[in-house]
Amino acid sequence: MSYAKKIADATVQNRTQTPFFSWLRNKLLAVDRQKITPPTGVPRADGKSVYHNPSRYPNTQSARTTEPVNLPGGVHNKLAANYYLDRDGRRSVLPPPALYSTEANPSFAKTTGEPLAPAEAYSKGPGENFGLQAPTPGFGAEWSRSKNTELKTQQETQEFVYFERFDCYAKST
């Protein structure tokens, strides 16, 4: 608890419940326990545990003492040479950069840096690279459907039949 100025004076009386409801609250929260039951929470030096009311009152809370935020000034905080077009964020936007060029000839290399021929660089499966000119990303895991190992509900699923069109390694079974 802070010794700084409080939100309210110490003369302000905290709201309390009537004795009956205070007794009922203590019974329901097991504040007053039997002698054979260990006390709640961490006991004090005298061995007794005291109920701490979780309610917050203005005379127990410290006043807010945080300082206002001190943010660094930007281009708007300059006193001189503060031209509008320099401050306008719309003028600093650039078009998106090109990630690749169709005219460029890519060079492929191993992880050690040794150059590879383009034919070796493509991660091709048994026949084709799915018709793509670029290498297949990843380690080139190939998926092939085997109806013999599927459950009956999977064998008759129309979605799998639809996706078989895209499986270039599918064998007629």
Automatic annotation (TrEMBL):
Disordered: region residues: 38-73, 124-144
GO CC annotation terms, alphabetical: mitochondrial inner membrane
Localization in the cell: Mitochondrion inner membrane
Keyword entries, A-Z: Acetylation, Electron transport, Membrane, Mitochondrion, Mitochondrion inner membrane, Respiratory chain, Transport
Record keyword Signal present: no
Biased composition (Polar residues): 56-68
Lineage of source species: Eukaryota, Metazoa, Ecdysozoa, Nematoda, Chromadorea
Native organism: Mesorhabditis belari
Pfam family, one: CI-B14_5a
Family of this protein: Belongs to the complex I NDUFA7 subunit family.
Role summary: Accessory subunit of the mitochondrial membrane respiratory chain NADH dehydrogenase (Complex I), that is believed not to be involved in catalysis. Complex I functions in the transfer of electrons from NADH to the respiratory chain. The immediate electron acceptor for the enzyme is believed to be ubiquinone.
Signal sequence, renumbered to the chain: none
Known partners and oligomeric status: Complex I is composed of 45 different subunits.
GO biological process: mitochondrial electron transport, NADH to ubiquinone
UniProt topology in membrane: Peripheral membrane protein
InterPro entries: NDUA7
Name by which UniProt lists this protein: NADH dehydrogenase [ubiquinone] 1 alpha subcomplex subunit 7
PANTHER family to which the protein is assigned, alphabetical: NADH DEHYDROGENASE [UBIQUINONE] 1 ALPHA SUBCOMPLEX SUBUNIT 7, NADH-UBIQUINONE OXIDOREDUCTASE SUBUNIT B
Tagged with keyword tRNA processing: no
